[in-house]
Amino acid sequence: MAKFKKGESGNPDGRPKGTPNRTTAQIKELLNQFVSMNLEDIQEQYDALDAREKLQFFERVLKYVVPQQQSYTENIDVSQLSESEIDSLLDRIMRKEGD
Known about the structure:
It is a single chain. With 99 residues, this protein is mostly helical. It has a domain at 22-65. Helix content is 57%, strand content 0%. It has four helices and no strands.
């Protein structure tokens, strides 16, 4: 294996953004195959759980299935806006509330 000086590597640009790590992709694929091959057993195990355990199962699994919601806040210094910008902002707010 090549030895590099501190701060250098064989690929100075690194892995392109968004490209999954090969090991991570392989593990995900293996887990996917495992779950697919054992769906019947997983269902049987789930059916044997009591109500509280089923809720705990869902709580643990949902974070991997449903994206976590994040709050969004925007601080606007209204004193720096013109009247037309304030009107435009109010229109946008009213449209969102009407959805």
